[in-house]
Amino acid sequence: MRPSGRANDQLRDVRITRNYTKHAEGSVLVEFGDTKVIC
Q1: pLDDT computed for residue 6 by the predictor
Q2: Coil/strand/helix, residue 26
Q3: How far apart are alpha carbons 16 and 8 in whole angstroms?
Q4: What sign does the CA torsion over 25, 39, 36, 5 have?
Q5: pLDDT for the residue 4
Q6: For the chain, what is the radius of gyration of the CA atoms?
């Protein structure tokens, strides 16, 4: 068990936000807990 309460084989919730930036067509923000990736 992890400090967050998740099981060792349990993934974090994933959030995907489409069209994240208004000037880059097809941009996406992907969030896994505190990790954020802009594609």
Answers
A1: 87
A2: coil
A3: 23
A4: positive
A5: 81
A6: 13
Residue-wise pLDDT tens for the chain (39 aa)?
Answer: 788 888 999 988 999 999 999 898 899 999 998 999 999
Domain spans of the chain?
A: 1-39
- Distance, in Å, from the CA atom of 4 to the CA atom of 27, rounded to the nearest integer, reads 30
Amino acid letter, residue 12:
R
Q: Rounded to whole angstroms, what are the CA distances from 18 to 3, 12, 28, 35?
A: 31, 19, 5, 17
At 34, give phi and psi (nearest 5°).
-90, -5
Instruction: State the pLDDT at residue 29.
Output: 97
